[in-house]
Specification:
The protein has 344 residues and is of the alpha/beta class. It has a single domain, classed as Ureohydrolase domain (Arginase, Chain A), CATH 3.40.800. It contains eleven helices and ten strands. It has an eight-stranded parallel β-sheet with strand order 4-1-5-10-9-6-7-8, sandwiched between helices. Strands 2-3 form a two-stranded antiparallel sheet. Strand 6, helix 6 and strand 7 form a beta-alpha-beta unit. The longest helix has 24 residues. About 6% of the residues have low confidence. The structure holds manganese (II) ion. Manganese (II) ion binds next to loops.
Length: 344
């Protein structure tokens, strides 16, 4: 049986008690300190358990969204996130740092910006592949130092490099995707490395990978045909199916457990913010009505970890370039940092 959903003990030490003994805690947790790191924490990367890797890349987006601004905006807004999480406790104690943006990504972004609107899709595809190689290399280097990694997009196309890096280190892991879209198109508008094709690229590269999709509510028939042809390794839980069960009186806990029971023991989580209701991400590139509430999502994710399964790494993508969207994403990012496997 799965453990009950139990918040941290009420007698847990308050942040101020632990702060004095903890090297990662900002003693003055001042949200106006523009020099502090993510969540107002120290910027020193030594001995941290979790590294957030920023990937401000959105050249693979079908609609201009400004999601390349998300890592910078989330950093700013993260300083307003309370450090004591009511479910997971003092997440910051593990040490969390936002890495500097890889200079190669900056160069590739500048190169993408110089392309004309009618630029050949082959050129954009090439740049997307190069960005993913850079991301894969950087993440492998963090994993080899025993750090857990969360990749912060950017559009969904960047997940490819992160999944490849994690699969090298954790060959038994499966993939859990929270998303409004299946992202299983072979290509979109001629772009093979489109954000709408990222899961197709990943599943094509790793034929043994198991994929569980949750919250899906916008697909094309080509994607559903691909899913059917791969039904031995793609398990899709649509938003419609979830909402129908809720309407019939099935509890959210029972729905979560029916999904979780089929998940492998080790997971990589790719979280497209548009899997949530649009009210949580109004400025994401392609919002779709419906979706999971914020509380449904955090309950589901916490219950996965309570079941004994391990989240090896994650990405959070498609956050809109707007401070309010970034603030909600910063809350979610902090929660994800509390769920990801602690590496040191
Ligand atoms: Mn997506």
């Amino acid at each position: 049986m799965l453990d009950e959903y139990i918040p941290v003990a009420e007698n847990e030490k308050c942040v101020h008690d632990t702060a004095l003994q903890n090297p990662y805690h900002p003693l003055y947790n001042d949200s106006s300190d523009e020099n502090s790191g993510i969540f107002g924490l120290s910027t020193h990367i030594n001995n941290v358990s979790t590294v957030i890797v920023p990937a401000p890349w959105d050249a693979a987006c079908s609609q201009g969204t400004g999601t390349r601004q998300a890592p910078e905006l989330i950093l700013e807004q993260s300083r307003f996130v309370e450090l004591h999480d009511l479910v997971l406790g003092n997440i910051y104690e593990r040490g969390i740092v936002l890495a500097d943006t890889n200079s190669e990504i900056t160069v590739l972004t500048e190169e993408a910006a110089t392309l004309e609107n009618d630029a050949s899709t082959a050129k954009v595809d090439q740049l997307c592949q190069r960005v993913n190689s850079v991301i894969e290399k950087e993440i492998v280097s963090h994993l080899s130092l025993n750090r857990s990694v969360g990749l912060l997009g950017g559009d969904h196309s960047i997940s490819y490099g992160s999944v490849m890096a994690h699969k090298k280190v954790f060959p038994a892991m499966g993939l859990l995707q929270i998303d409004a879209h299946a992202d299983l198109r072979p290509s979109l508008d001629g772009l093979t490395w489109s954000h709408a094709s990222v899961l197709h690229r990943i599943m094509e590269t790793i034929p043994t990978l198991l994929l569980t999709q949750v919250g899906i509510r916008a697909v094309c028939s080509i994607e559903q045909a691909y899913k059917s042809a791969n039904n031995y390794r793609i398990n899709q839980h649509t938003d419609y199916e979830i909402q129908r069960k809720l309407a019939q009186g099935v509890t959210w806990q029972a729905i979560c457990d029916s999904v979780i029971n089929h998940l492998p023991a080790e997971l990589y989580l790719t979280l497209d913010i548009d899997g949530l209701e649009p009210s949580c991400c109004p400025n994401t590139g392609t919002p779709v009505p419906g979706g999971l509430s914020y509380n449904q999502l955090t309950y589901f994710l916490h219950r996965i970890v309570s079941s004994g399964r391990i989240i090896r790494g994650f990405d959070l993508v498609e956050v809109g370039g707007n401070p309010k969207d970034a603030l909600i994403a910063a809350h979610l990012l902090y929660f994800l940092c509390g769920l990801v496997e602690r590496r040191n």
